[in-house]
Amino acid sequence: MSAPVIEFNCPYCGYSNFSPLDPLTGVHQWTTDCENCCRPIALRVRVRGGEVEEIDVSPEQD
Ligand SMILES: [Zn+2]
């Protein structure tokens, strides 16, 4: 069984980041920092039945 992790590209620099995922069904939103440029990234992930259906990545906005 693989660890619940998603891969996404930084919207600022394009670096490939990984983030742990809450595998519960639903929409999860959180903010993480790019490992390369350290800028804040807003993640929105939709999960159903333990599978990732959709990942939205955008620059964090205040
Ligand atoms: Zn970056």
Q: Can you walk me through this structure?
A:
The chain has one domain (5-59). The radius of gyration is 12 Å and the shape is globular. β3 and β4 (40-48) form a beta hairpin. The chain has strands at residues 5-9, 16-20, 26-33, 40-48, 51-59. The model has no long low-confidence stretch (mean pLDDT 93). It contains no helices and five strands. 0% of the residues lie in helices and 58% in strands. It has a three-stranded antiparallel beta sheet with strand order 3-4-5, with no helix packed on it. A two-stranded antiparallel sheet has the order 1-2. It is an all-beta fold. Bound molecules: zinc ion. The site of zinc ion (ZN) has 8 residues, from loops. Zinc ion is lined by residues 10, 12-13, 15, 34, 36-37, 39.
- Number of separate helices: 0
Distance between the termini: 37 Å
SSE class? mainly beta
Low-confidence stretches: none
Q: Helix amount, in percent? A: under 10%
What small molecules does the structure contain? zinc ion
Major β-sheet, in short?
Answer: 3 strands, antiparallel
Q: How many domains comprise the coordinates?
A: 1
User: What is the averaged pLDDT score?
Assistant: 93
Rg on CA atoms, Å = 12 Å
How would you describe this structure in keywords?
62 residues, mainly beta, three-stranded antiparallel beta sheet, two-stranded antiparallel ribbon, 0% helix, 58% strand, binds zinc ion
